[in-house]
Specification:
The structure holds two protein chains of two kinds. Chain A is of the alpha/beta class. In chain A, about 35% of the residues lie in helices and about 20% in strands. The longest helix of chain B has about 35 residues. The chains are: A alpha/beta, B mainly alpha.
């Protein structure tokens, strides 16, 4: 089953008074199957957060349709099967961690013993057992991120949408989040996340979508993207030492990257990202 | 359709959040200090009896601080939540936007009810402490304002709550489309001024007759609630009795305006981008 289906989604923010309208997303077509982990990549301002908000029904598209599990994304009922963690989340500072997760579990319709069991489970999953009795106002940003993840997962949603979930976490915390995301997929869930942690995206995602200035510029599995880049790799044999420096200079002038170790040719997602971003910049993609 | 449990959860959270604000504590302290000052200086008034002096001051404080609380707490509750982006996590759950607005209003109304109830209770206590004879449990009229009916004092507290409720609903409507809580507060106070001067606008409409000035004044006169209808403290302080028909009428009048403003607020918030 398709978890998310976006067809021709365009978002234009009309600015107040005399400012010109800003096109945040342009004709986005994207389909995410159940069980996938899809990563959204792109520079700041490329439209990742707007796209996630449209899927969550927090922002209405100017044109196009968005369906989540076959239902319009802006329907409240649709969100009963979706968990969401916004970028740098903020919560009610006067509630304790456990009260906060209980509040959100109640909003999602959980009640009684099931709710209490799920709350404990979610808090344990994000490693916040000891801090859950403290007020959220005393939490660090990383702890807010973790408790935010707990409230997103407390309903065991079929689709989890995470906007930069590891932005405020230390490496250990980021690795924990990675494990949680893998766990969601193991039990058949779908994850859509945006992040600038390319190593993690490479290890986690079954597919990545690169956005730039509101358009999808590259999309595919990590292997596909990496392979497509490797096709342009040349292994030179029999090069005279006298010509090597000249060749290096010639290649460098054309933006080619010289590998120190010819055996380590496999590209990383980071290189794909940087190359795509560089290409987009040089093409100066502008939209009306 | 709105769910009762979600409404209660949002209202409870709003009440808890608003009641914890230092601003509320400050308002409550100022209102209490004003009441105590009135009690202390009750014998200094040359023109009014002790009861009238205490009632005038007490209801003045309740009206003023209640209005400030209604505007600031409502603006902070909705616009502040949008500014702080805590609203994103709430609306990411299966919560209808109308439920969120209704829950917010219910929480604020509960807070205002608590404020007016405590204020009225304190006023009754002050009246009784000043002179047990100044509050009579029997609903009877007393010439010269020597004492006030207990029922009328409580009813007057209830009417002030109704006025605060309208103001909260109006501020909620403003908060659904403005971009900052400061702007919502400013607009709320402007609305308070307009509602308080509504009778003047209505008179202008009558005086202007046909034409665009008269038309505009007529529209404002119809849309804006008349807060002069809620100014009954003088009557109560003079020992007057509030009729049941007045209380039923003012309750219905308030319910119509609250319903209108909340319906508009739900409509605006449904189209609000977060």
């Amino acid at each position: 089953m398709t978890a998310v289906e976006l067809a021709g989604v365009t978002k234009v923010f009309s600015s107040a008074l005399l400012g010109s309208p800003f096109c945040a997303l342009r004709d986005i077509n994207l389909s995410i199957a159940e069980g996938e982990i899809v990563g959204l990549l792109g520079p700041n301002g490329s439209g990742k957060t707007t796209l996630l908000k449209i899927i969550m029904g927090l922002v209405a598209p100017t044109a196009g349709t968005c369906r989540v599990f076959g239902r319009p994304g802006h329907y409240a009922e649709t969100r009963s099967s979706v968990g969401y963690l916004s970028e740098s989340p903020e919560f009610y500072p006067f509630l304790t961690g456990i009260e906060l997760v209980r509040f959100f579990a109640g909003l999602a319709g959980l009640a009684g013993r099931v709710r209490e069991a799920r709350i404990k489970e979610a808090i344990a999953l994000v490693g916040m057992e000891t801090a859950s009795a403290r007020r959220v106002g005393t939490y660090s940003r990383g702890m807010k991120q973790r408790i935010g993840l707990a409230q997103a997962l407390v309903t065991s949603p079929r689709l989890v949408i995470l906007d930069e979930p590891t932005a405020n976490l230390d490496p250990e915390g980021a690795a924990d989040i990675g494990e949680i995301i893998r766990g969601i997929r193991t039990r058949g869930g779908t994850v859509l996340l945006s992040s600038h942690q390319l190593d993690q995206m490479e290890n986690l995602c079954t597919r990545v979508v690169f956005l730039n200035r509101g358009s999808v510029v590259v999309s595919g599995t990590v292997d596909e993207l990496v392979r497509s880049r490797c096709e342009n790799t040349l292994v030179v044999e029999g090069l005279r030492e006298a010509d090597e420096s000249e060749l290096r200079g010639w290649l460098a002038d054309r933006g080619a990257r010289l590998l120190a170790d010819p055996l380590a040719r496999r590209e990383r997602l980071e290189q794909v990202y940087l190359a795509t971003a560089h290409r987009c910049r040089s093409e100066q993609r502008e939209f009306p | 359709m709105p769910s009762g449990s979600r409404l209660v959860a949002i209202a409870g959270n709003t009440f808890q959040e608003s009641a914890r604000q230092r601003f509320l504590l400050l308002l409550a302290l100022m209102a209490a200090m004003l009441g105590l000052a009135a009690w202390w200086f009750r014998n200094c008034s040359l023109v009014a009896t002790q009861a009238k002096f205490l009632l005038d001051t007490g209801f003045g404080a309740l009206t003023f601080f209640g209005a400030v609380l209604a505007i600031v707490a409502t603006a902070e509750s909705l616009s502040g939540e949008i500014e702080r982006r805590t609203v994103l996590a709430v609306l990411a759950k299966p919560v209808w936007r109308g439920e969120f607005v209704l829950g917010k209003l219910a929480g604020i109304l509960a807070l205002l009810l608590a404020f007016c109830a405590v204020g009225t209770g304190l006023l009754v206590l002050l009246l009784w402490t000043a002179s047990p004879q100044s509050v009579d449990s029997q609903a009877q009229e007393f010439a010269g304002g020597r004492c006030a009916s207990l029922f009328a004092v409580i009813a007057c507290g209830f009417v002030q709550w109704l006025r605060c409720g309208i103001l909260a609903a109006l501020t909620l409507l403003v908060s659904t489309y403005v971009r900052s809580s400061l702007l919502a507060v400013t607009t709320g106070f402007a609305a308070l001024a307009i509602c308080s001067l509504r009778a003047l606008v209505w008179d202008a409409f009558r005086a202007a007759g046909p034409g665009w000035v008269g038309g505009a004044a007529g529209v404002i006169g119809l849309v804006v609630p008349d807060f002069e209808l809620y100014d009954i403290a003088d009557r109560v302080a003079a020992g007057g009795v509030l009729s049941a028909s007045y209380l039923v009428g003012i309750t219905l009048y308030s319910a119509v305006y609250v319903g209108l403003f909340v319906a508009l607020a739900v409509y605006c918030f449904r189209h609000r981008e977060l």
